[in-house]
Backbone:
């Protein structure tokens, strides 16, 4: 009986975690389409004029994953969360270079409705979001991870719960709290004023 693509990915992830170098070569063709969708979603939130294409973002993120990350992915959700973090780091590095080149780059504040809406049409300020997420991570690492999995990796509640080993109810609660916290942080109040 032939295994499903999801089962094959899980099996290959385990092989990569066991140190089998050739397994990483088998993984990319199986996850490429989903990574490309993830890259497209992240690039859609970038300002107009972005020169990085989804294919290039996928390849750079994948190289970072197999080269830099400890390859101990527990499941598909965990792997896609790691891929989303790698893509986010790449985009943040590029945004920082652009901002530095323009001496601040004319950043603007973004509301949570722009950040949390999966149908946002305005480009969001990735650096401001990254700063807010870094503060959230220091405050509550699990909530930060849920934002990464839900918003950046595009995982559903059930998949995020499985990736984190928590209940669906916990993910729903933490997702709601994290979105409210990010709204407070990014709504224009004092920097770091999330505990008002």
Residues:
């Amino acid at each position: 009986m032939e295994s499903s693509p999801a089962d094959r990915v899980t099996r290959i992830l385990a092989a990569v975690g066991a140190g089998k170098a050739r397994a990483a070569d088998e993984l990319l063709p199986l996850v490429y389409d989903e990574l490309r969708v993830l890259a497209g979603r992240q690039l859609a939130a970038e300002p107009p004029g972005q020169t990085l294409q989804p294919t290039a973002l996928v390849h750079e993120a994948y190289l970072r994953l197999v080269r830099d990350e400890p390859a101990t992915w527990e499941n598909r959700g965990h792997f896609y969360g790691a891929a989303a973090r790698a893509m986010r780091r790449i985009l943040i590095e590029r945004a920082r270079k652009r901002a530095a080149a323009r001496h601040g780059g004319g950043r603007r504040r973004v509301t949570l409705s722009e950040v949390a809406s999966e149908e946002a049409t305005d480009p969001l300020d990735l650096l401001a979001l990254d700063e807010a997420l870094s503060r959230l991570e220091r405050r509550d690492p699990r909530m930060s991870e849920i934002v990464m999995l839900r918003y950046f990796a595009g995982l559903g509640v059930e998949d995020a719960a499985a990736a984190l080993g928590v209940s669906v109810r916990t993910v729903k609660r933490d997702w709601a709290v994290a979105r409210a916290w990010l709204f407070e942080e990014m709504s224009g109040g004092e920097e770091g004023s999330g505990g008002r």
Notes: Residues 76-101 form the longest helix (26 residues). The chain has a mean pLDDT of 77. Residues 88 and 105 are 19 Å apart (CA to CA). Residues 1-106 form one domain.
